[in-house]
Amino acid sequence: MFLGIDLGTSEVKLLLLDGSGQIVGAAGAALSLSSPQPLWSEQNSDDWWQATQAAVQQLRAAHPAAFAAVRGIGLSGQMHGAVLLDDSDAILRPAILWNDGRSHAQCEQLTAAAPRLHAIAGNLAMPGFTAPKLLWVKQHEPETFARVASVLLPKDWLRLQLTGDKVSDPSDAAGTLWLDVARRDWSDDLLAACGLTRAQMPRLVESNQASGVLKPELARAWGLGPEVVVAGGAGDNAASAIGIGATRPGDGFISLGTSGVLFVVNDRFSPNPASAVHAFCHALPTRWHQMSVMLSAASCFKWFSQLVGHDEAALLAELARNDSAVIRETGAPLFLPYLAGERTPHNDPFAPGVFHGLTAQTTRADCTYAVLEGVAFGLADGLDALRAAGTQVHQLSLVGGGSRSHFWAQLIADVLQVDIVLHTGSEAGGALGAARLGWLACGGAVDTVCTRPPVAALFSPDPQRHARLAPRLVRFRDLYRRLRGA
Ligand SMILES: Nc1ncnc2c1ncn2[C@@H]1O[C@H](COP(=O)(O)OP(=O)(O)O)[C@@H](O)[C@H]1O
Ligand SMILES: O=C(CO)[C@@H](O)[C@H](O)COP(=O)(O)O
Predict the structure, then answer these.
(1) What gap in Å lies between CA 400 and CA 94, rounded to an integer?
(2) Which of 169, 222, 326, 466 has a CA 20 to 30 Å removed from the CA of 81?
(3) Domain-located, residue 254
(4) Is residue 78 part of a domain?
(5) Is residue 468 situated within a structural domain?
(6) What is the pLDDT of residues 143-157, one digit of tens each?
(7) 294 in a labelled binding site
(8) Range of the domain at 111
(9) The complex's ipTM?
């Protein structure tokens, strides 16, 4: 048995996988976000550990025999977050997350201070990345910065609780802006630009290699044997790729989680900062990937559902009951999904969320539709950015919580004009990939472990609907341009 632990933004998810690749069970525990000031997004790292332990107890209770047979653990997690520790590994401040926009000024400073940033890290400096956050802490919380002995990414802080080791992997480390992405090693020059050194960074191992073993006292408390291997693991998007078998160049998927991600595998480091796509290491040693990232995707649906007091399933059922789809596709309001600013393609922490074109006839179902459509339009921008970066896409799998909606999957296929494939277990996101990385670290072979799960549904583009939506996409893009800086 192999255990995957995915530290998402809205939930910690656990998944048990057996030695024939079948999912045995899953469990989860919710997490909340805090935004003490505009543009800020933080979580308490201790909450991650409490949620992980609660989910472990759920999974053990549901599958006692299978859980007791766990031999390998893999980690996956929300990327870019900064967990700052002092020299006794105590947490110095709340973790600053991937969707935090406070460090926009520091991005400019970093770009000026590190002229080779784009060549080494392969990416634009964006506020969500780890390096500009540390510059922000240096300038705004100098007492804290002076005490920083270690900087860990979210899943790597969980690993510290599990094994006592400070270790990261290249797929997650690439999101710091301190990694030499082609060489898959820390860059002393980029660290120096932030007043940091390699001594403050975790050791790096590849995602599919062992990083350490579970602490004996935890193994006993969880009813596990000795020598449970913990794999290097991966950033949640690279882990999701492993989960749906996206390992060959050209394989790609969309993740509809809190963020919205278009991810395509490359066989070499392929930076293209000009189009605001990310070029990072993949979770296999000879692979890299490009991705475009929306800061708010399924989280727009969650926000709207909480605003109107109906859950996502109820809103989708209401949408399905209404038979005026064509009228809605021409008359519904437009929605700009920039609830936390945007990365690809705008790199603009101040981009606003917007409902535009409300009338006295606008219904709740129209607004639900607009939210789902606005996210699909954001993905269309992301796909254009990937194409501008030289990546070709013909078919995309869909993963993450948003993949529960077939309506949304069809809408995305129609907007993007790309086949969208749903594999079984797709809503598990990074947790399945994490479990698979645990299996690889215990000696599993890539060809055996990283297979494509069975296809649950295929959504092919409808050209007529695409033609109806095309003018709305033009208006969507125009709306952002008109509002920029307003
Ligand atoms: N039936 C549904 N249809 C579409 N989206 C849904 C549905 N149920 C939940 N979601 C969305 O799934 C998202 C959570 O997805 P998840 O992949 O777990 O995110 P994360 O990894 O960021 O925590 C929430 O934003 C929620 O609105
Ligand atoms: O910042 C990125 C990728 O660059 C995000 O994809 C985070 O990794 C958060 O992921 P989810 O919680 O949405 O899965």
Answers:
(1) 26
(2) 222
(3) no
(4) yes
(5) no
(6) 999 999 999 999 999
(7) no
(8) 2-244
(9) 0.98
